[in-house]
Amino acid sequence: MERKALTAEEVLAKYDRESNTRDLKGLMAKVVMAIAICFSLFQLYTAVFGVLDAALQRAIHLSFGLVLIFLLYPTRSSWSRNKVHPLDFILAILGGAAPLYIVIFYEELVARAAMPTTLDIIVGVTGLILVMEAARRAVGWPMVIVASGFLAYAFAGPYMPNILAHRGVGVGELIDHLFYTTEGIFGIPLGVSSTFIFLFILFGAYLEATGLGKFFIDIANAIAGWASGGPAKVAVLSSGLMGTVSGSSVANVAGTGSFTIPMMKKLGYRPEFAGAVEATASTGGQLMPPVMGAAAFLMAEFIGIPYVQVVLAAAIPALLYYSGVWIGVHLEAKKNGLQGVPRSELPKFKELLFSRGHLAIPLIVIVYLLVVGYTPMRAALWAIVLAIGASLLRKATRISAKDIVLGLEKGAKAVLGVLIACATAGIIIGVVTKTGVGLKLASALLELAGGKLLPAMFFTMITSLLLGMGVPTTANYVITSTIAAPALVQMGVPVLAAHMFAFYFGIIADVTPPVALAAFAGAGIAGSNPMRTGFNAFKLAIAAFVVPYIFVLSPTLLMINATAVTVLWSTCTALVGMVGLSTAMIGYILAPVSIPMRVLFFLGGLMLIQPGIYTDAIGGGVMAALIFFQYLKRKRLAAPHAEA
């Protein structure tokens, strides 16, 4: 039985906590707008004229963020969405003041480093509590519970089992470490949020204002709308393109799914499959260069490599991910005889490029700037200017001065979820660095895995998926990269491959039942059963569960220690392997595939994805034989119809 389909706004309110904010009117709306614009202007000012000292930059960034979160997110869901409760006013004032205490008394705090006064501790405790409360509102309870668990561990060290035991940390010592150093709340995650991430989110806000999202959907329609299963392929292509500028799975589903899911249902796709296609494609946006998800910026900082190196490493895995989804969609369409949209009803590719192709100029330029060595911050700054400038090239796409101002407001609001997730993740990192629990847990993981790489990878995957059920990708990556990635590195895995492994599974949790938020959002728009949609999304995303294991075992796919020839060969054989995996999941290629044949297709596909001469030869042989048998089967099935 088909359920009531939800609108994009209803989906965001239900499944994306970051979008479930108050709808203020009148004077209060203007006040919030003014604060948000000032926030964006501060970030732009420091991007142009130079970032402040780390502690000052991050403190001001957090101060703006806490004020906006307490004004926009009510304490209780039952409270009014049209006005701010007096309690939230008080919390907003305290939230703004606590980080500014560091700015105002910066020199004094530096002079008495590691010797906090009573007032310092009171302000620090207040700031810590406010960060946790803001995280509860904007991100959800799971994040708060994880951070609380780490805080409890800091105090309970002397009472823990041997492998986890430590001397314990006093209240003053812990607060000083978490709130007055750049090892805790104001650590690397918030530092990245206050520089790179903010500007890229602002860039995305301006691209959306120019109508780039609609342009991507129209271009995808022109390219693939006519093909077998056209609307589903449009969903894959448009969501992949949108993923270059958006780091939220649920927001991607709501943005492109409101167009593509009804089209798929109209064509004849089952509602649960239509919702799954959009969810899987949208989730992959966080894996898609050049922007990717916010955690990619953290990865570059944690590992200490240029961001462009992360982008290049992500390119082939992202290609395999989207190829897997595309092939799955194609096979599902062939299996059910689903046709595309008549060409006469679709936009013309050349006309689209001529009328709106200039909107993509900022994306092309940002890739170029990153490749030639610009910092992500400087590249994003130029891209923002170009996004506005490119829109002015044609009257139909021109944005007004009002749109520019509204972009400042929207960008500031859009960063709040990432900002507070980064601040809360800083609490976790602070406890890890203070107690040394990261090495202890890495050692425990190694012991649990018996020193074997595959079990260690499996436990890391399960940890990431479990955390992903409620913790945002950014925080998920911070936790797994702090605890699990070091264990993989100790086993000889390249640092980038270990971190990319944790990053991948943190993202793919959004389409992994039982809690698959992106799939549930797709189900909301499709009016389908959420769990069935989740399992369909899981099948389509099979590449994301296989590829990370492959690039850890053979880092060629990440362009580590690889030549152009090996990269090209590995990519081509892996793409053929994706055909095998997708066939195994869908149960169709040239004809329906039996269960034993599906197992063989899966194994043959795995061998082709795994780089190596012998695996490629065996996998290629298995795939060729299987496809030949399917060809003969199709001829046998077609023969009675020909005779008739």
From TrEMBL:
Transmembrane segments: 27-52, 58-75, 87-106, 112-131, 138-156, 184-207, 311-331, 352-371, 377-393, 414-433, 453-471, 483-507, 540-560, 567-591, 611-632
Pfam family, one: DctM
Keyword Transmembrane helix attached: yes
Entry keyword set: Membrane, Transmembrane, Transmembrane helix
Ranges for domain TRAP C4-dicarboxylate transport system permease DctM subunit: 127-562
Protein name (Swiss-Prot/TrEMBL): TRAP transporter permease
Species whose genome carries this gene: Anaeroselena agilis
